[in-house]
């Protein structure tokens, strides 16, 4: 047992942590859970650490090999942008300029990264831009008293989903993944090692709506974004849709979405060809909510 290496993935929500503990030797998710923090973990790192340590004590795990954190897309800036050919020689500067344009923030407020999706110097590039508030990044890097729990990797849930599908799902073609959380919905179209498209659906319009009405509105919004994405780029048409996130555990929402996507096969993201999932009922029930956390743990796990 002493040789077992545990990897911990954490997705940070508004006032909770979604956690996934993985055993690298068995390529197995041992535990998943949603831990309430009452305050924002990105701001109140003391509460973040205290809740995490209490959970590790509860599941009788003294130490982990590595901790990786994922931040939801709606708590970050994620854009798929086009960089014209004339700016291709200075991608860094163009991306920084774009962030300053859409945020009107001072230089240094955001930690900025990007990933080239396609293109070349002569045609320009399609780029996935990622920006996270530097204050939150510094909090996570410097705020933990227990340095063994300080995150070694920090990503956004879009990249965590890509990693989960690539490592555990064995992507064979184009996949559409819908991550439906109560704070926002993220939709990605991806192939192996490449993001083809990204769309988001706000949940702000659902405030003060009944559960039935809210789910109908949200399912309509998701179906509309799928239609728009396919109209903009015919290459991302897919009949396979994988669903995860908090609302994926609610049968009423799943059925509403299935009715709005009659031409698609909608499947829950709760089984993988290359990753074993927990068997205990409580842990298994949280898998759909913790997809981002599982992908985050896989990002730093040895041997994947």
Features:
304 residues; alpha/beta; five-stranded mixed β-sheet; 31% helix
Describe the structure.
With 304 residues, the chain is α/β, with parallel strands linked by helices. 31% of the residues lie in helices and 31% in strands. The chain has eight helices and 13 strands. The strands form three sheets. The chain has a five-stranded mixed beta sheet, with helices on both faces. A five-stranded mixed beta sheet has the order 11-10-9-12-13, sandwiched between helices. A hairpin with a 3-residue loop joins strand 1 and strand 2 (16-23). Helix 4 (157-167) crosses helix 8 and helix 5 packs parallel to helix 6. The longest helix has 22 residues, at 211-232.
SSE map:
Layout: E1 6-12, E2 16-23, E3 28-36, H1 45-58, E4 66-71, E5 77-83, H2 91-103, E6 110-120, E7 124-133, H3 134-142, E8 153-156, H4 157-167, E9 175-181, E10 184-191, E11 194-201, H5 211-232, E12 240-244, H6 251-260, E13 265-268, H7 281-285, H8 291-300
Parallel strand pairs: 1-4, 4-8, 9-12, 12-13
Antiparallel strand pairs: 1-2, 2-3, 5-7, 6-7, 9-10, 10-11
